[in-house]
Design goal:
With 190 residues, this protein is mostly helical. 76% of the residues lie in helices and 0% in strands. Helix 1 crosses helix 4, helix 5 packs across helix 8 and helix 6 runs parallel beside helix 9. The longest helix has 27 residues.
């Protein structure tokens, strides 16, 4: 079985998890989505827990790359911070899906330990990136930046959840604008 099949399985699993969470991952349904037999999935992943951990790991790794690219594209930390909510908006743009890290976090008590570990890394990657941008932009000092980074991460994930529950991406945009007006998200200086 090729690497492409493994990637196709992970991609299908990500889309399913973004719509239905870890509990929504069904090996037979994923096999149908990819066009392979269920036994072929077990060739790459010995269990649903292994599949869940692999898809969660890929998700946080992709997010880390996206955040790095965002920083490089925007050119400075303050502009990067202003574009950060777009990372979460993309899931809503993709058939009103939820950030997989957020969805799986809501299921945390029911996740196998390897999946829990990868889900926590997603939050850690986001908070660390936000922390670094806040300090570089001199929005906060080192003593305050992690708390502010966690607040931003939590608020944006919450805005996504609220918008998804109403199938209203405009609500997400309104909430993000409200966070900017309230000062949680720093304004880009002109």
């Amino acid at each position: 079985m090729s690497k492409t099949s493994r990637d196709e399985i992970l991609n299908a699993a990500r889309l399913t998890a973004q719509a239905h969470g870890y509990t929504g991952l069904n090996i037979r349904a994923l096999a149908d989505d990819v066009g392979i037999k269920a036994a072929s999935i077990y060739y790459h992943f010995a269990s649903k827990a292994d599949l869940g951990a692999a898809v969660a790991q890929r998700y946080w790794e992709d997010t880390a790359r996206d955040l790095q690219a965002l920083r490089e594209t925007e050119g400075d930390a303050l502009k990067s911070l202003s574009r950060y909510p777009h990372i979460f908006r993309r899931s809503l743009e993709s058939q009103n899906r939820l950030c997989m890290g957020s969805f799986m976090s809501a299921e945390y008590d029911d996740l196998p330990d390897p999946v829990k570990t990868e889900v926590q890394k997603f939050a850690d990657v986001n908070v660390a990136w936000l922390n670094a941008q806040l300090q570089e932009a001199q929005v906060t000092g080192p003593g305050d930046s992690e708390t502010r980074a966690r607040a931003i991460f939590s608020a944006i994930a919450g805005a996504q959840l609220m918008a998804r529950s109403r199938n209203d991406i405009n609500l997400f945009d309104e909430l993000i604008e409200g966070y900017s007006q309230a000062g949680l998200l720093p304004a880009v200086r002109k």
